[in-house]
Amino acid sequence: MLSEEAQVGKRVRIRQESRSTALRGVVGTIEKRWGDPKYVALDVLLDDGRSELFWHHELEEIGE
Known about the structure:
The protein is mainly beta. It has a single domain (3-61), classed as SH3 type barrels (Roll). It is 0% helix and 41% strand. It has no helices and 5 strands. It has strands at residues 11-14, 27-34, 41-46, 51-55, 59-61. The protein has a 5-stranded antiparallel beta sheet, with no helix packed on it.
């Protein structure tokens, strides 16, 4: 996902290349954006209720 595509409310999946094997493929919703608009970090509320921080490139957009 590109930094400018990462918007609050967007549904995302943690990419298979993610740093955490336990989170790979998990789905959630972007809640907050942090940092430089060209390289954002994102708070994602995962469907299991956890909230995790990711870099934009660790996520991929999914359809509703």
